[in-house]
């Protein structure tokens, strides 16, 4: 009798599993969301099948990827996988769970790319010096640098020091802002700084260049439900969201913003529609684009600040826009001749995070552009 009962149990489990995967496969063929809000990315589309895919053996792989990403229980399975990865490896998809329940992305520096960026940075600095324009180079810390006390006990901090030693040797004039090494200046679920950190950076840059900073800001909460890039990558359940703050001031809705040559579809410096999306940090000036200009209108005769930047600058530009007409270039999204930009600028600021500088081929497009 026991053997018969075991056989029935095994048959039941086998049939249940088969029904689950069959139902998932069938449901995956029906229309499903093309974008994963939790991951902030586009999911695989059903492939266009042709003879080449079949002969090269790619058809099965693409169909399998589509069925995997469109499985109706995918969100649950992804969270389950994240928890298992955390228990087994101490992290989930390259994201660390910290002592306070926040998230930090594990750095993955590529020293070949890093050295290339540093060589280009030295070249750019020399060109700005030749043009006789004031230049500031700012490299912002990663969250693992700014809040090491929150890292899990097994994390090895030794490797993180090497990138900073390399920077000090290669570009000794670079500003690294020791005042930003505080956990409360960074989002708990994202790799960016809070506006509090951007404000500190703004004041220090003003002091460096002999500019009187404005102080008539009102620190305003824009959203209390922000889950950033670290949360999207990790996929862990029950992570507490961040609050996005902005330093508002009278007249900040009157600035004119142009994104890649087109007027922004929002008024002023904040795209508040982004607060209802997964990319909440894009509330600052609409998020990533190639060339961003911020000015006070067609008659803006103030000095032009050329800002070579990554997305960290988005939270800083609202402060800088009170002093300068800002032309911000992100080389990852636009190939613009750097020499031409220098000629039209009065000052130059290079500002990016160490994560971008040490992991992404960030600056070389500036030298390749004609």
Description:
This protein is an alpha+beta fold. It folds into two domains: 2-103, no CATH class; 110-368, no CATH class. 37% of the residues lie in helices and 17% in strands. It has helices at 2-28, 51-55, 59-69, 74-89, 111-130, 143-146, 158-170, 195-209, 229-234, 317-320, 338-343, 354-359, 365-368, and strands at 35-36, 41-42, 91-92, 95-97, 103-105, 135-140, 218-226, 242-248, 256-259, 262-263, 291-295, 304-309, 325-329, 347-353. The strands form four sheets. Strands 6-14-12-13-11-9-10 form a seven-stranded mixed β-sheet. It has a three-stranded antiparallel β-sheet with strand order 3-4-5. Strands 1-2 form a two-stranded antiparallel sheet. The chain is globular and about 75 Å long.
Helical content class: 25-40%
Radius of gyration: 24 Å
Distance separating the two termini: 82 Å
Mean pLDDT metric: 85
Number of strands: 14
The sequence of SSEs as H and E is: HEEHHHEEEHEHHHEHEEEEEHEHEHH
In a nutshell, what does this entry contain?
This protein has 370 residues and is an alpha+beta fold. It has helices at residues 2-28, 51-55, 59-69, 74-89, 111-130, 143-146, 158-170, 195-209, 229-234, 317-320, 338-343, 354-359, 365-368, and strands spanning 35-36, 41-42, 91-92, 95-97, 103-105, 135-140, 218-226, 242-248, 256-259, 262-263, 291-295, 304-309, 325-329, 347-353.
